[in-house]
Specification:
The chain is mostly helical. It is built from 11 helices and no strands. Helix 3 packs across helix 8 and helix 9 packs antiparallel against helix 10. It is globular and about 50 Å long. The chain binds fe (ii) ion (2 copies).
Amino acid sequence: MDGYNILKMQKKLKKYMDEMRFWHTLGVMYTAASLAMRYGEDIEKAQVAGLLHDCAKCIPNEKKLKLCRQNHIPVSETEQNAPFLLHARLGAYIAAKKYDITDPEILSAIEFHTTGRPQMTLLEKIIFTADYIEPMRNKAAGLDAIRRMAFEDIDCAVYTILKDTLTFLEKEKTCLDNQTVIAYNYYKKLMEKTEV
Ligand SMILES: [Fe+2]
Ligand SMILES: [Fe+2]
């Protein structure tokens, strides 16, 4: 695609989101752009991925499952029981189908924004981190430190976010996607290696 019409995408997206989700989305878009400036990622790609990362979030859960079934999008047992987890993979599908995104880097940054994964690309790390630290976020512990860390060492920020997310989900006894554990184990090892 030759340049993205970000304003047009924003207007369309707004129709499918509640106000808070839309504000969160803009926060992720601007934070992702800032991290892209810091780490030398393509700023426009970071904005588009940030803007669209939650494009499937406001679809009712039953409809999420139906859309996945209809479009042959795999659904794990955990996701079947907790369909909100599907918004990332379904979001990548909707970004491609409804917003004409063809760039595989943008689509995978949307797909892995919730769970992360081992060996994330820079754009994936940027969206994963921006989703956690954008200015509207205020509940997670240690946010100030993670916000600073995000601009100093993004791998360390990704590791800390994964660690804190697992601690939070275990405490809340909320549905945990095994992908998060796999990503955490990878970044834990990476951090141990860099300490040596
Ligand atoms: Fe999300
Ligand atoms: Fe989000």
